Structures are given as structure tokens and as C-alpha cells.
User: Fold these one by one.
Assistant:
Number 1:
Amino acid sequence: MLVISSFEQTVLLEVAIANLEMNGISKEQILIAPFDKRREEIKLFDTIQRSDGISLLDLAAVLATIFAVLGASYGFILKWGPIIWGLIGFLFGSLLGYAIDYVLTKKKTKRQSKDPRVATEVVMIVECDPAQGSKVEEILWSNLALGVTRIDSN
């Protein structure tokens, strides 16, 4: 019988292993595999198939609109006219908004990657006799497993 569970990588995982060993499960019957966190660079544009939930164009659109309106309004007073100043304001606002979003998002993702509180999930697979299955499951649940399932070998 296999008992499969998932944990956050904390001290409780070590306690669960110690409890299993005290109840007759040897180290050779326990397999622990940590998951790697996905580290991916920020993409400028999302596609239909892939979206990371981070948009770098929101602030760019807002600032482009604001600066385009201001450029067109003041363009009536300035030499090149409202259309040229509106386009200049649009370009300046969109570049400024994109740059601000990019810098803030880079800082946020860098801070999250260095954050020690971000726990890596770990999978534990325990091979045991069917008679020990319920005890193993009880030990795993008592040590705050995120999920537990049993698979019979039959």
C-alpha cells in the first residue's frame, strides 16, 4: 500500500518522518520529493494560451490617456498644434507608465523570490502494509499534511 501526502516544507515534516520511524516505518519505505518553484521572467504581452496574471500595460494606458489629453489641450497654445502634442503626450505617458510598472513588478518578484516565508511544497510517499495504512494516514494528518491519499497495491 502507498500513502501519498503533501506538506509545506516546515519542521512538521521532520516531525512526521520521526513519528513514522517510531511506528515501524523504515527510512527505505519513505520517499520525499520537494517541488521547485517556477521562476520565469516577466513577459510583455500575454497570449490566449498563456497568461501570468501580471499586466504591464494598465498604467501605461492610463498615463497615455492622461498625457494625450493634456498634450492636445495645451497644444492649442503651443507651436506644433494639438495633434502633434497629443501624440507626444501619448508616447510619453505610455513609456512612463510601462517603465513604472516594469520597475515595480521587478521589485515585487525579486522580493518574493528572496522571501523565506514562501514555503516549498513537498510530496511524501510512504510504502507500508495495509494494516499500517490508517496509522500512517493518522500520523500525516496530525502533522498538518495538506492532503493525503491511500493507494492499494492490489
Number 2:
Amino acid sequence: MKLQYIGLKEINGPLVVIDHVSSASYDEMVQINLDDGSTRMGRIVQIEGEKVVIQVFEGTRGLSLTNTVTNLLGHPMEIPLSKEMLGRVFSGSGEPIDDLGAIHPDKYVDINGKALNPVARTYPRNYINTGISSIDCLMTLIRGQKLPIFSGSGMNHNKLAVQIVRQAKIAEENGQQFGIVFAAMGVKNDVADYFRTSFEQSGAIKNVTMFINLSNDPIIERILTPRCALTVAEYLAFEHDMHILVIMTDMTSYAEALREFSSSKEEIPGRKGYPGYLYSDLASIYERAGVVHGHKGSVTQIPILTMPNDDITHPVPDLTGYITEGQIALDRNLDQKGIYPPVAVLPSLSRLMKDGIGEGYTRGDHAPLADQLFACYAKVQDARSLASVIGEEELSKQDKNYLEFGELFEKHFITQGFTDNRSIEETLDLGWQLLSLLPVEVLDRLNSKLISQYYDPEKGQELRNQR
């Protein structure tokens, strides 16, 4: 039943207050009718007795305290869903902005989603191939996983996001479809155009549903954007049996919108001014990933966030790390060297990687090879630290070997062209070629059978000759 109220008690920034309201619900949508005949949408964000606080999507300019008519619609925000949303571009609140007309929906669904019984979850298995060696080999993305990218201001995370969208695919399976839902929050016009143009030129747009919230759009739309995107992802995954990869950038912009929203409600701030419920709010987004019993599809998330001042202890990356299953960290020093993608190997990890790689998924040598590459690259950092103190000339022969390995590892394995799409076999073979630069006796994470099969000093010499 729709309820109608005339007049407002208070207008405060993007919020309006109505008194003497009965039977209102939290997150209920409202329609606000102005004197000039125009309408605006909003939602109830706070209820105190018979007083309700409404956040107006389009802002409160021009609203009258006496003549404004507010209709309570009796339902939360819903988004129309259809499989034809693939290949389309929407605003942050789900309105088409690609001039291709409205969606003909199969159904309308609450964007907040439904709580998923943990018992209904299936443990994530099998991997998504991104074509990027450092990710595929060392921090493999598993279907149903949430694996964030921790970046910094001015780094190439947007370029990396476009490359993942263009190249990502699942292992070949009969009848399995793959799609991507891309949500951009708080981006500038040129960045939004870059995403859209890149997807169109590469042809990836036909498998992508885009949600774009610009930096000058209302903050309430920014708060809705990831929820709209995930609702579409869940629909495609669990009703159309598709494997969906959701890429969301930038979650820091989302958190800042949440902080501004919390401040406008005069809530008591927590760390660095963020609301005390930031953890649970982020969890309500990140936990909408996974595989469900009885369904062939999956939802996998790659949230991208920029760390203010490259501080990994900042509340947004800190809380994100608690909720998600690992992280891909980008390194500013590598970025300044011109290395792309500047993936920092040592602080990055994928906690679900061990169960989605190996025989039957990637290749039997994947896990021990990744362990050995991690171990050797860690020793590279030790050798570099020692060289900075005593000088490279004073290093032992073994430390000099590690320095050479580190240089070639960054040049050939981490460094990869924007259009370079490597298969998992090419990536693993390149890893063995790099390990063949080192004496066989230091490869303590590999058994003799793997060494006899893949270790080849002549291939290592080929990399030396390319220096």
C-alpha cells in the first residue's frame, strides 16, 4: 500500500525529514513530487519512532517545506533484470546511458540481495585465466573468490582492469558461458570514456555489463552502484548458469561516499572519520561472491581500491583484507621503473589458489613452481638489501646469481605488454626458464622428478643472451 505525506519537517543537505509517519520500512523507496510537477526518487535511510530520514537521489535543491508531496512506495530499490543487459552501459543506479533504449526485464529484484546460507556454498574450485603471468602463476584467481587489487593514486590499475576484462576467460567447459560485470565508482569523465572505448574497440563489450558512476554524480548513486552490479551478476550466474567476473573500481571512492553519507546523518565517526559499520557494509558487498549448491554458475570479484598515501593500514584496505581471500598489491617502485603491470609479488597472495590449480586444473607442476619462484624472489630482496650496504662487488657468487635472477624475473615474467595474453602453459614454461638461471642445488622446493622434466640451463642461457 502506497502512503502519501504532504510537507517536510526539515531539509539538511541531501536529506529530508518527515514526521508522523507510520508503517515505513528501512531502505524503502519514495517518490517526491515538487511544486513544478517534476519528481525525484529517494530512499529511507533512518527511522526514529514516527520520524523518517530520506536521502534524495537527485539532491534537495528546489524542495519546499510546505508543498512537497512524498509517496512511500512500499518496496526497496529494485533493478530490472534481463540477459540482454550484457553488452549494455548503465548509470550507477541502473539507468541505461548507451542510447539503446530501456531494458525489457524478465523480473525486478531488490539490489540489496538476499542473505546466503553458508551451508549452501560450494568450495571454490578451478581458476579464471587472466592472461597475466604474475597473477595466473603466483596468485591465481579462483572462480567464486574475492581477490582485491591494492593500488595507489596515479598507478596503472585502470589499465590493468581493462586488460583483465579483455583477456579473462575460464577453462574450456561445454555449455559454460563467461561474462563480466564492470562497475566504476567516482571516476572522472575521461576515465569513464577510456573504459568504455577500450571495451568497444577490443570487442569485449559484448560480454560486459557496465555501470558507470561519475565523480560529479550524487553520492547516493555511488553507494548503490556495487549493489546494482552484483545483483546483475547474481542473476546471470545463478539463473543463467554463467561464470561472472565482477570488477569494481574504486572501492575507496565508495567508502568515501559512505563516510560523507554517514556524516550527513550526524553519526559518530570511527577510524579516520569512516562510520563504525564500514566493516559490515563492505562485507555486505564482498560476501556476494561464491558458488552455490545446485547452480552451475559462479560470481567472482576483483575489487580495486587505491590506498591513500600507499598506506596498507588505512581502514579501507585493512578491512578489505580481513574480508577477502588474499590481495594483489601493486608496487610504486616497480611502476616508477616502467614495469607493467607493477605487481608486488611478495605481499600478494591468493588464499584459495592451492585448491584450484595443479593436475586437472592448470598443470601438475604449478604449485611447487610458484612456491619456488616466491622463495627465490624473496632471496633476491635479501641480496639487494645486502648489496645496498656492502656494495654489489662484495657479494658472494650465489647472491650475484639471485640479483641476476631478480632482474630477469622482473623484466620477462612480471613485465608484460598491455596486449600480451599468455596462456597458463606459456606462463609456467617461462617460470621454469627463469629458474634454470639458478644452480639446481638451490631449488629446494622442487622434487627431482620435476627438475629432470623441466629444468634446462640452456633455456636459462637464452634469457641471459636477451639482456
Number 3:
Amino acid sequence: MKTHNKLIRNLIPNIITSTGKSSTTRILDEAEYVTELRAKLREEADEYFAASSDAEALEELADMLEVIRALAVTHGEDSEKLEQIRADKAAQRGGFDERIYLIDVHES
């Protein structure tokens, strides 16, 4: 028996059952859920940084996006609102696609 003690995607118990195995799960309360989503985001970020190919990196980014969408709901909004906030911020401050690296700022 392998112990995991972590938040999993909704269909994982069914996938485990389909392989002839069984699992023990429980439903988290709201506070635990937020804590575990934050831990999951860290886990997925670590996996992203450890990725050895573009395909692996994209898989981990997709996992991070799924967790971020779930976190948005815990903050009282949905992924559409999160996207609107992102778009507004990009319109006001720009994105990162121009690869600008700030070295320092001089007083006038």
C-alpha cells in the first residue's frame, strides 16, 4: 500500500478502480481544500521546473492552470473573472512577451 495524502483530480479514484485497485479518499473541508490547492500549486510548479522537455513543461503548466482556476473559485470568482483581471493588467502594464529585463532604475 502506497500512501499519498494529497489533493487529486476528480476522476483519479475511478481510474484507480479501473486498474483493479482500490483507494481510500475523503472530502476536504473548505479550509483544508484551500491549503491543499496551494500545496498542489507548489507541487506542480516544482514538476514544471523539473521538466526535461517542452511537452512535459506544457503538461505541468496545464496542471498549474487547473489548480489556479480552482483557487480563483476559492477567492470568490471564476476563471472568466481571473482572465479578465489578467487581460486588464496586461492592457495597463503589458505582458512578458518582449523579454524586457530590468537592471536598475535611476533617480532623475
